[in-house]
Design a protein that fits this description.
By secondary structure, the protein is of the alpha/beta class. It is 29% helix and 26% strand. The protein has seven helices and nine strands; from the N terminus they run H-H-H-E-E-H-E-H-E-H-E-E-H-E-E-E. A seven-stranded mixed sheet has the order 5-4-3-6-7-8-9. The chain has a two-stranded antiparallel sheet with strand order 1-2. Strand 7 and strand 8 form a beta hairpin. Helix 1 runs antiparallel to helix 3 and helix 1 packs across helix 4. The radius of gyration is 16 Å and the shape is globular. Bound molecules: S-adenosyl-L-homocysteine. The site of S-adenosyl-L-homocysteine has 24 residues, from strand 2, helix 5 and strand 4. Catalyzes the methyl esterification of L-isoaspartyl residues in peptides and proteins that result from spontaneous decomposition of normal L-aspartyl and L-asparaginyl residues. It plays a role in the repair and/or degradation of damaged proteins. GO terms for molecular function: protein-L-isoaspartate (D-aspartate) O-methyltransferase activity. Its main location: cytoplasm.
């Protein structure tokens, strides 16, 4: 079926980009989520027939649901554990949050476009992803009340790593974030917080995301 074919394409993409990723295959649990979560539930009616294409799709308000291959590699890079608590900036459709939901204990996700955030909240509840909390607001400031997090995933492009997110990452935690100029390519960065709070960034590969917006 279409979802299995999508999973096959992700595997091919991973092999093709193995020199960036430093591996030839992603974590099996991550791939199982990609094979399970019904992406067609997260796209608008007129995009349903493309739901399992391995590409981003418009979700309205100038925003997109990310390419499945990108969702898979970002999830893999977070090195999640069953007891992890994860923060996502950029809920969008809620698809990435649903993928995370099956891999960790709790997901906290923030969306700045109110109608998208409210729709994602409803959708995730309807589909039974009940360890996901959705908040409408500016994710640049993170989610102080729920911090610190074992992992943080930013699914919009930032010009810099938001300092509040650096603070809200646990020592030993990982953040994955596309950093660079709006509308041009960005670099996907894997940021780890070492003992004494030192941050170490590693460039993974060039990507293209919609920008982080908000008033900061
Ligand atoms: N992860 C989403 C796709 C993200 S698209 C999915 O799985 O569908 C990027 C999203 O980030 C958009 O919905 C955009 O509105 C949101 N966004 C941009 N700036 C933001 C900010 N400062 N705080 C929270 N969300 C933001």
């Amino acid at each position: 079926m279409a979802r299995q074919q999508m999973v096959g394409e992700i595997k091919d993409n991973v092999r093709a980009t193995r020199f960036y990723l430093d591996k030839t295959a992603l974590d099996e649990k991550v791939m199982r989520m990609m094979a399970t979560v019904p992406r067609h539930e997260f796209v608008p009616e007129d995009a349903k027939r493309f739901a399992y294409d391995n590409r981003p799709l418009s979700i309205g308000y100038g925003q997109t649901i990310s390419q499945p291959y990108i969702v898979a590699i970002m999830t893999d890079l977070l090195d999640l554990q069953p007891n992890s608590r994860v923060l996502e900036l950029g809920t969008g459709s809620g698809y990435q949050a649903a993928i995370l939901s099956g891999l960790v204990k709790e997901v906290y996700t923030i969306e700045i476009v109110e109608p998208l955030g409210l729709a994602a909240k409803k959708r995730l509840a309807r589909l039974g992803y009940d360890n996901v909390s959705v908040k409408v607001g500016d994710g640049y400031y993170g989610w102080e009340e729920q911090a610190p997090f074992d992992a943080i995933i930013v699914t919009a492009a930032a010009s810099h790593i938001p300092p509040p997110l650096k603070q809200q990452l646990k020592v030993g935690g990982r953040m994955i974030i596309p950093v660079g100029t709006m509308f041009l390519t960005q670099q996907l960065l894997l940021v780890t917080k070492e003992d004494k709070g030192k941050l170490v960034s590693k460039q993974i590969l060039p990507v293209r995301f919609v920008p982080v917006t908000g008033g900061h």
